[in-house]
Write a structure and sequence with these properties.
- With 211 residues, the protein is an alpha/beta fold.
- 39% of the residues lie in helices and 14% in strands.
- Helix 1 packs antiparallel against helix 3 and helix 4 packs antiparallel against helix 5.
- The chain is globular, with a radius of gyration of 18 Å.
- The relative contact order is 0.16.
- The mean pLDDT is 88.
Length: 211
């Protein structure tokens, strides 16, 4: 409640995303840097986290069994902000390591339920699963487009916050002025296939005024 805006450099595959999700869920606007001086560090850590590749990996939503239980390896998402963040971090780590994810949203309150803390009513909890699965495959399939992929993951987290009905998402990405990848992220043609990019503003960090 004491923070209005926050900032985080993307210099690690997981920690900045966890911070970004947490701050957004608390109603804090977040800026994040995709400058190469940070992304280069992320790339190294990402390579260290990668596990042996297996195309059998998957992310699957599990429904409760008739006896009220789940398979032993099912991640049961808790009905809280902390529960959502824990689930997202779990998905991110498993995707980077080429590991499967089995999860259930059965413990989440249904759409239209009252939100006691912030007021209003909840959105459809299925949106959490939809965006988590999108993020999983973004990171699972990541090869060399680190700037674009991590930008899309951050924007997807912003979309998730808005889908909760009462929180607003405020994101701004900072990149290098000579990065053609970063400068092309907001091209209008991208909004057709990647509409989540509309949840973020972009800017560049210049070191000379003549840039």
């Amino acid at each position: 409640p004491l923070m209005n805006c926050a900032f985080v450099p993307f210099d690690h595959p997981v920690r900045p995303l966890k911070f970004l999700a947490k701050m957004l869920m608390l109603g804090c606007g977040v800026g994040f840097s995709l400058e190469w001086r940070f992304i280069s560090k992320l790339l190294v850590k990402f390579s260290e986290m990668r596990g042996p590749i297996t195309r059998l990996s998957m992310i699957v939503r599990i429904n409760v069994w008739d006896d009220g239980t789940y398979p032993a390896n099912t991640h049961v998402v808790e009905d809280s902000r902390e529960g959502w963040i824990k689930f997202l971090v779990y998905v991110i780590k498993r995707a980077i390591r080429y590991q499967s994810v089995y999860y259930t949203l059965d413990k989440l309150r249904p759409a239209g339920s009252p939100i006691k803390g912030f007021g209003g009513k909840t959105g459809d909890p299925a949106k959490l699963g939809e965006i988590a699965e999108r993020i999983y495959w973004m990171l699972f399939e990541l090869e060399d487009d680190y700037i674009e992929t991590y930008y899309d993951v951050a924007c997807s987290l912003g979309e998730l916050i808005v889908s909760g009905n009462v929180r607003r998402s405020a994101l701004i990405a900072v990149g290098d002025p000579d990065s053609t990848t970063f400068l092309g992220l907001k091209k209008f043609k991208n909004y057709t296939t990647k509409p989540w990019r509309s949840y973020c503003n972009n800017s560049v960090n210049v070191h000379r005024f003549d840039q």
